[in-house]
Description:
Layout: H1 2-16, H2 19-48, E1 56-59, H3 65-74, E2 85-88, H4 94-106, E3 112-116, H5 118-123, E4 127-130, H6 136-157, H7 162-169, E5 178-181, E6 184-188, H8 189-223, H9 226-230, H10 236-267, H11 269-275, H12 291-318, H13 322-328, H14 330-341, H15 343-348, H16 353-360, H17 365-375, H18 380-408, H19 418-427
Parallel strand pairs: 1-2, 1-3
Antiparallel strand pairs: 3-4, 5-6
Helix pairs in contact: 1-10, 2-10, 3-6, 8-10, 8-12, 8-14, 8-17, 10-12, 12-17, 12-18, 16-17, 18-19
Amino acid sequence: MGKLWAVIKREFLERVRTKWFIIVTIFGPVFFGVIMVLPAYLSVRGMKDVRVADIRIIDATTTGLGDRVATRLNGGPMGNAAATQVVVVAPGEVAAAESLATKDVMAKTRRGYLVVDSATIQEQKARYAGRNASSIREIEIIQDALRSALLGQRLEREGLDPKRVEDLTRVKISMSAERITDKGRGGSGIGSAIFGFLIAFLLYMMIVLYGQNILRGVLEEKTTRVAEVIVSSVSTDVLLAGKVIGVGAVGLLQQAVWLGSAVALYQLRMHIFTALGMPAMPNLPLPQMPPMLIVALVLFFILGYSLYAALFAAVGAMVSSQEDANQAAQPVIMLLVFSIIFAQPVMLNPTSRLAEIVSWIPFSAPVIMPMRMSAISIPWYELAGTLAGVAVTCAICVWLSARIYRVGLLMYGKRPTMRELARWIRQS
């Protein structure tokens, strides 16, 4: 036990004392907050400089539809008084008008042009061309203005006042979604879904980062022949266990700091958004976290990390170069990628059959089940069965990896074949 504790302490302190660990642990939440808020901030700032109304409307409908669209664009969220130019043409003059408008757009005197004709009236079809044609938001604004103008025209033909109808039908609904669990109300449903996805992504990132950290550490000790000195006083099983536990403790410490910082940043979100001049973020209260849920999350992290850490350690012991390690680690990484691929479908429908199946697979359960647990109420027997499956799979992988690690740590040369790995496992 003393030797195990010495290895754990060495692995833990060696990583915690590095400058990169301190920088990433402290500024990691700030970095993730910036990459989440910065795109929205830049979008808001960029949209303030956009003038969607600065286009030309080629109207070949003979019904005044172009003027209706221009009125709505000029008074819209990105409008500019009298910025839209309307050119009324005969149906046979559309091609010439388009050619002239194209030259103006190329000369940057107009952002684009919209063509409305008989097809717009009869089949609700229109054409737009411009420098901003790839801007999804701007095209949506032009479509909304055209849709509103067509609707107003139809209402007038039916003898109704379009402005009155628009005033009566323009109703904004603000609906909150609240979870109901076996114990009653359980907080915001949307907040629980977002929280569950963040937990799954965090677990995935920690397993990837610290699992590969173990792989690099084993490979470095092997290539520098340090392992030969260590195993002369410590058994390979103790060395493997110390590495897994020590690096796992570093991961738990970093996760605790990140979660605490994330909660603090969430509490200050209103002040941050106000200071940046951005719209207020919807109030999504944090979901309730019963003690049993927290314990289950920690168990899934420990078991999932131990499972993949053992596999990465075995890979590091099998190879003798970084190039071979990158290739040999691909199957292990693919198992992790398999779990994160299903994160979005499971988040959208955590009660589906797909979500149940993926959460029962031991290699994806450490990522998928915590997300489902945060979003919905999981029966205790399903939770216990999933934990048992992950624990059994973890024990098998650790047992196999320990035997590969015991032989491979002192083996050099080409990467072993599957037959040689089987012989290592039998003989060790």
